[in-house]
Design goal:
The complex is a heterodimer. Chain A is an alpha+beta fold. Chain A contains 15 helices and five strands. Chain A has a five-stranded mixed sheet with strand order 1-2-3-5-4. Chain A is elongated and about 120 Å long. The relative contact order of chain A is 0.05. Helix content of chain B is 56%, strand content 11%. The chains are: A alpha+beta, B alpha/beta. At the A-B interface, helix 11, strand 1 and strand 2 of A face helix 1 and helix 8 of B.
Chain lengths: 431, 237
């Protein structure tokens, strides 16, 4: 029994799986308008010309040919040829078929005068073509997106999707044409006698009809709209999450791995932890400013470099900010040198860096509570202090003052008067 | 740990005026509010030698009920917690228990967090990287009714009260810092301890404390327009 059951199950599965069907495509190669006729001909094994003529002749039956063409156009997928670029359309080919079509339509108009059924058929055909154009103007990825957000009615999603202005305009015009066609058609069909009151009645009926459609469709549209918006928000959140994940992966996990590997080396672990903390803080709290443009950012970068190089912590406080120019850069360089000196010679773990930007001057203070030194004992050979700090500040019109005593720590005070020209010259290009 | 010993020398100096006899007779009671149990345990161990930790809480609701029962001298308050954080605790407790002093303790040194907690009523703000001795000194200072300004907080206040010509001053008493207060804040930002500030400015430590407390009051009371706006703006500068 069980074996038989299995067999039957297997047979059913095999029967359900369909044989590879010959799919109907619109080839890009031999098309005149959209390739529908060429695709049909290839599928049915008929000559292309016969199919084309048949379609044109069908125009005569209340525009059936046009309606069929639009329907096929909408449902048939385009065949993508990979090996060579598609041939360009030969627009001259349109002429004979256009002429035949016109002839057929004229003939029909002469033979059957003014029958309502024919008009309705034409109207439907025109509406179908309009809808087809809108459908095909939207790109395939967007369409796939509609199908995923609203599987039951992708065309609705197409109507309510938030999209750029071009699509909005296109949709607006397309919709307007459709509505106008509907109204005019209703008028023409319902008021064949041409009396004014019945025309009005027709218009009113049409509007009532539209209103009814609106009332029926509004909740659906609204729900769809909300769905799309929620989906969009979700995508933004997902993007943010990915960014955060990338940051954690690139930085935090990397640092943690390094800390584990260097766990015996306290100094190295501290250095790693501080560097990571700084970068996380910057990421969380601070706007990114370029160290080459802003004074505060430049100072913070200098402090970070000293922290990294000498495994100390620099407590940085900057009040105010200004544009960076050559003189400000010199001030930052002198401050950096003072930090390096403190890191190397003071023998402490923490150095304070305070900078303030005032309207008339910039000042920087670098202070440590370390060994300190006797100022008179510093020989001319100490380039760090003489050249890089005092000399540099003097060259740029500033002042450097060093206060230190053995055992009481050191403080380096750097001041740079803000020259009007440099401040305004630095600011104007930015504004 | 050379860092903590190096810095405790400075921080301890400011607290040195308290007589040891007084410390012996009555140890300060401290309450911890932090959602990280590991951090609470660490602080409890570090502070054990200096103060009595009388309780801890991991959420705002727990903190509000337990602080009301324990009535500690000082509450160490975390800024960021899942259910509202330090501000919620301060808002709930400030009116009903004015004698309890709050010291904010957080990993965040973002301007909006710092200024926000101080304006909600905290008497000071220190970051979690502070050394145990400095933390103990800060707790004592807060318990005495003084303010605790880290260099960074001092910098923020200087920034917030910076004289900007385009902002009208509604109340000169509250909306501006005196020159002396500005000087004290600058020295704090430069890493000076109270004792060193007193020496530098030729004033007494008590006077330094008065200046800092005045700055704290201005920071809390001033309705200066930019003070509330400032923290938010700073992110965009």
């Amino acid at each position: 029994m069980t074996i038989g059951g299995h067999d039957r199950g297997g047979a059913i599965t095999a029967a359900v799986t369909p044989p590879p069907a010959r799919r109907l495509y619109r080839p890009r190669d031999h098309r005149i308008v959209a390739g529908v006729a060429a695709g049909l001909a290839e599928h049915l094994g008929l000559p292309v010309l016969a199919v084309r003529i048949a379609l044109v002749v069908l125009l005569g039956f209340s525009g059936l040919g046009l309606l069929l063409y639009a329907a096929y156009w909408a449902v048939l997928p385009q065949q993508v040829s990979i090996d060579r670029p598609p041939e360009r359309r030969d627009y001259a080919m349109l002429l004979p078929f256009g002429a035949i079509g016109l002839g057929v339509v004229l003939l029909q108009a002469l033979v059957f005068k003014d029958n309502a059924a024919g008009t309705i058929g034409w109207l439907i055909a025109v509406v179908a073509v309009g809808a087809g154009i809108i459908w095909h103007q939207s790109d395939p990825t967007r369409r796939g997106h509609w199908t995923t957000t609203a599987p039951q009615a992708p065309w609705l999603a197409a109507v309510v999707a938030e999209s750029d202005r071009r699509y909005f305009l296109f949709r607006f015009i397309g919709g307007g044409v459709l509505v106008a066609t509907g109204i005019i058609g209703a008028v023409a069909v319902l008021a064949p006698t041409g009396s004014l009151s019945s025309v009005f009645n027709g218009v009113i009926f049409a509007l009532v009809g539209l209103l009814g459609v609106g009332v029926v469709a509004a909740p659906l549209l609204w729900r769809m709209f909300n769905q799309l918006r929620a989906e969009r928000e979700g995508r933004i959140r997902e993007q943010e999450r990915a960014e955060l994940a990338a940051m954690i992966h690139d930085q935090v996990l990397h640092t943690l791995a390094l800390i584990q590997r260097n766990s015996a080396d306290i100094k190295e672990v501290q250095r790693l932890a501080r560097g990571q903390e700084r970068s996380l803080r910057n990421w969380l709290y601070k706007p990114t400013a370029s160290p080459t443009e802003r004074f505060a950012a430049a100072l913070e970068q200098a402090a970070a470099e000293v922290e990294d190089t000498y495994a100390i912590s620099v407590e940085t406080v900057v009040v105010g900010d200004t544009e960076c120019d050559e003189r400000v850069a010199a001030l930052v360089a002198a401050a950096r040198e003072a930090l390096v000196n403190a890191a190397r010679h003071a023998g402490v773990q923490t150095v304070s860096l305070y900078a303030e930007v005032e309207s008339d001057e910039l000042s920087v203070f670098v202070r440590d509570r370390g060994a300190g030194f006797d100022l008179s004992g510093v020989g001319d050979s100490r380039h760090g202090v003489r050249g890089s700090i005092i000399g540099r500040m003097q060259r740029h019109g500033g002042k450097a003052e060093i206060r230190s005593a053995t055992g009481e720590g050191t403080e380096v005070r750097l001041t740079l008067p803000a020259s009007r020209e440099s401040v305004t010259a630095g600011k104007e290009p930015a504004r | 740990m050379s860092e903590s010993s190096a810095r405790s020398g400075a921080a301890g100096g400011a607290v040195g005026r308290e007589s040891t006899a007084e410390q012996e007779s009555r140890r300060l009671t401290v309450f911890l509010v932090d959602d990280h149990a590991m951090f609470r345990a660490g602080v409890r161990a570090e502070l054990g030698a200096h103060v009595d930790v009388v309780g801890e809480a991991s959420s705002v609701a727990e903190a509000v009920s337990k602080i009301a029962a324990a009535e500690p001298d000082v509450v160490l308050l975390d800024v960021h917690m899942p259910d509202g954080g330090g501000r919620a605790v301060l808002d709930a407790m400030r009116r009903s228990h004015p004698q309890v002093r709050f010291l904010a303790l957080s990993v965040s040194d973002a301007a909006e967090d710092v200024i926000g907690l101080i304006r909600a009523g905290a008497r000071g703000y220190v970051t979690k990287t502070i050394s145990p001795d400095e933390l103990a000194a800060a707790i004592k200072r807060v318990a005495d009714g003084d303010a605790v300004f880290s260099p960074r907080l001092a910098g923020f206040v200087l920034d917030a009260f910076a004289s900007r010509p385009d902002v009208p001053v509604a109340d000169p008493e509250l909306d501006q810092l005196t020159n002396r207060e500005r000087e004290v804040l600058r020295l704090l930002a430069r890493g000076y301890a109270y004792k060193e500030i007193a020496k530098e400015l030729f004033i007494s430590i008590k006077t330094v404390e008065t200046h800092v407390s005045n700055v704290l009051r201005k920071l809390q009371m001033s309705n200066r327009y930019e003070l509330s706006r400032w923290a938010a703006d700073r992110r965009l500068v």
